[in-house]
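ok so dumb question maybe but i'm new to this and my supervisor (M.) told me to 'just get the structure for FAD-binding domain-containing protein' and walked off. so i did the thing. is this what she meant?? sequence i used:
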Amino acid sequence: MTADQGGKLRVTIVGSGLAGLTAARILREQHDVTVYERSGAARATGGQGLSTTPNAIRILDSVGFDRARAGSVKSRGYRTYDKAGRLVQEIDPRHEETFGVPALTHLRADVRNELLRLATAPSDELGIRGHPARVVFETPVTGLDAEKGVVTLEDGSTVEADVVIVADGIHSRLRELVLRSAEHKPKKAGLTCFRSSLLAEQARAALGQLPNWWTEHYHMFAAGKDGTDRFILLYPTRNLESMNMSCIFQTREENKDTTESWDANGDVEEMLGVYHDFDKNVTKLFRVVNEIKMWELQDLDPLPTWCRGRAILIGDAAHAMTPMQGQGANMSIEDGEAFRLLVQPGVSADRVPAILRRIDELRRPRVDQVVKNTRESSFGLSAEERFTRLFQNADYNGIVDYATKRAAP
Ligand SMILES: Cc1cc2nc3c(=O)[nH]c(=O)nc-3n(C[C@H](O)[C@H](O)[C@H](O)COP(=O)(O)OP(=O)(O)OC[C@H]3O[C@@H](n4cnc5c(N)ncnc54)[C@H](O)[C@@H]3O)c2cc1C
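this is what came out, is it supposed to look like this??
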């Protein structure tokens, strides 16, 4: 039996990443929300920096995301360089004029902390109705009965809910329990990424001054264009005080065993070796970066469904993709917002499975297309084509608007 206390549902969310916390922020307005997170409060996975595009910004704005608290930097666009450091192309999409909102860059920990605040701060402080979500850290979920909405915690206890949102990331443990099949696993994309960050003072020390793409708010994209699929993506974060560095290259045999985990350590000499023929103004920065992490990029083939009974997969658990279009987190935020369909008058526990199927029906084809575009961006697409596909995502304005537009003749 499920409880339906006058439209108030019991919601369990597994995972406090960007997907889970966005869902918590939406659902707390009407329902009792508990988030179980296996790690501590400071956990933030998935790369040091994060680019958010207008599709996610509209959603973040709609839930009171405070850009000042998150140190968000407005991104002007993209400057593409060749490996010798010559400017090849500048793309300024005029986000605000074209899409009504900017694109932003951040430290991803800052985005997660702000979403955590939005999920858990007192309702008065946020000026919204409902009650704060409860986040239970260091509590892994180990089992799920999707039909009944029951999760099992590591200590063996069980929790029954009307809705279970599975947002436990790319290596989701619960995915196979929703799909009743263990065959849907992420696949290696053939590319490895060195991830790092550095502070403005470190960059000044290395170069004498900050590069102009940094002070002028551009993404700096340096591409090998020599058949090696090597490129470097840099962009400013946290009020221009720090910088994200993602350096992607074809996976090499010797790295294959070391890059399974987000936390594998990279080595600066190895990084310098991979990019030995790139502009020295860029590779000089390698010597002063903070910790270097190394990860082999992976993605997930489209799933046959995201939901079963009272449970639904979202975020990387549903559609892990590589960062080649910078859309994984943006899609995770879109997913979290889709639970507005459960924040409606008259929603009751017995309608939950049908509403989850509706979310699946609306979200999955859109995200499958983004995964396809991301895959095609990995190898061989021109910069123009890559950006054209990226901008196709930009006009999204939430699930209700999307459903209305799709229904229009
Ligand atoms: C190098 C790199 C750069 C990227 N850059 C961008 C970018 O610029 N823009 C963009 O949009 N996307 C980017 N992405 C993708 C983005 O990081 C992910 O798509 C996004 O973080 C997914 O969020 P999530 O909430 O689904 O998963 P996660 O952030 O992985 O969160 C999952 C959470 O679930 C918890 N968890 C796992 N298992 C359990 C369990 N059993 N019980 C309880 N808790 C559990 C984990 O501890 C974690 O906190 C990038 C990815 C990479 C690798």
